[in-house]
Fold this sequence. Notes:
Strand order of the largest sheet: 2-1-5-7-9-11-13-15-17-19
Number of strands: 19
Radius of gyration: 21 Å
Largest sheet: 10 strands, mixed
Shape: globular
Distance between the termini: 35 Å
Order of helices and strands: HHHEEHEHHHEEEEEEEEEEEEEEEEHHH
Number of helices: 10
Low-confidence stretches: none
Amino acid sequence: MQVLDKTQVEAISQALGEPGWVLERRLKALEAFARLPYPSKKDEAWRYTDLSEAPLEGEVETPKGLRLSRDELPELVKRRLEKTDVSGFLVFVGPDLVYAEVPEELLAKGLVLTSLAEALKAYPAKVEATLFQGVYTEDKFAAQNAAFFTHGAFLYVPAGLEVEKPLGVFKVLEGGKASAGRSLLFLEDNAKAAYIEEYLSSDLSPTLHLSATEMVLRPGARLRHAHVQTFGHGVWHFHRQRALLERDAVLNDLVVNLGGRYARSEVASELLGPGAESEMLGLYFGHGQQHFDHYTLQHHVEHHTRSDLLYKGAVKDEARAVFSGLIKLERGAQKTDAYQANRNLILSPTARVDSIPQLEIGANDVRCTHGSTTAPVDERQLFYLQSRGLSRSLAQELLVKAHLADVLTRIPLKALRAHLEAVIEEKVRI
């Protein structure tokens, strides 16, 4: 096992041709990474998770300069491109940006969609103003990502530009080495865009994947964002994202965990200006021995802000899901509306869900609600459907669809919604 040290950090930064200030921030993150312990069940936020089998350290994959034509893209990506409606997109295979396709009319209007490494060279001021603002050294994994990330996407939408069709990135994980990537999404005043990041792989030997997404929304900006992972078996996926919403900014966020051996998503919305709004949706379905952790934060800093969270999932076989959500209101967050709901369906007696909704309210003129439900499949409903000629597996599939419909119907991106429905149907039938 290779030690994660200063030599490796310097080699990554040099290979990417980064400016000195990035290396400086990487080395500070390395110091935090070395100082912080890996979490254990003694930590409240990790009490339901066993990391003893996780491939936590090892050599991080580095770019090889690979470029591909559209016909040469991995089959996993080709199949998705046949059924997606993204207008502009990037494709990463391992740490390499192998393909980029962005409409010329958007580029002419000032939109930027490229790799983070290229953005640091071509748009250094834009990156320096926003990189590491949302995710840096909050814990061991965040610090590890900040020190060792080798690739990632950069989206910039100039003031007033409204992008009608979704943009996105496809990341194909190869395995063999650890992977660390991060995305930076920066929308100027009154800009509007939709962005989908998809993570794909075949079945792999135990592989560590670290991802971070930072979103900076200037006043009046509107972003629809989706993080969708359908990794193959063997992947340990640690994802952290934070959105910084200024006055009247609006974020519609979706986090989907369907693949991998283990997936942990830590998602935060920071409502920093009056009128900011955040919708946070989550969707997950675990089978086999999959384990999905979801930790969310709705942080209301200023007055007259609104957040609405709905996470729904199902587990079967010996799968396990964890949800821990916090609504936090600062003293100045008067006239806040905040809602949080987590709903779970258990499809087998050996599956398990732990749900912990929380409130921390420092203001007194607010409206906040939270709730959680976890229940097994209703045998009466199953019996009714089976009495109408449906097999038990098909009846169960219909009940799962009905359970998840609240989230699916709130996704206006039709092609993405159809893709998620297809993956869920396949998992129910396994």
